[in-house]
Specification:
By secondary structure, this protein is an all-alpha fold. Helices cover 85% and strands 0% of the residues.
Length: 130
Amino acid sequence: MNFLGRNLKALMLVSGVLTSCMLYVVIWPAAAMRSMFGVSLEGSALDIVVRDWGFLIFLTGVLLIYGGLRPVHRGPVIVFSCAGKAMFVALVLALGGQAIRNAWPAVAFDAGISVLLMCGLLSATQSDAH
């Protein structure tokens, strides 16, 4: 686990860039919903919510990049990011059906990166304590 602590900056930068790619949801919400969940959502309220969701995920990616560059902010940024990712994973797994069939790459990425980030944070924190 010490490897993750030593490479936490790189892990945060890479995951931040990948997470920031969700900005495309703001631009193409219908296409994003079809590709991620296999469904089409109609209506202006849904369009607003989906675009907002995509923008908030984009901001989470930006925060991960910022935290990677500013070590003093890594803890809160990782906790915030992992909480959001955990909620997404939990909702997709709980609702299942079509969502899980299509969203499994995003679920796997969010679950995996959250575990790596939390382990890296714990490792870095333990190294700083010694």
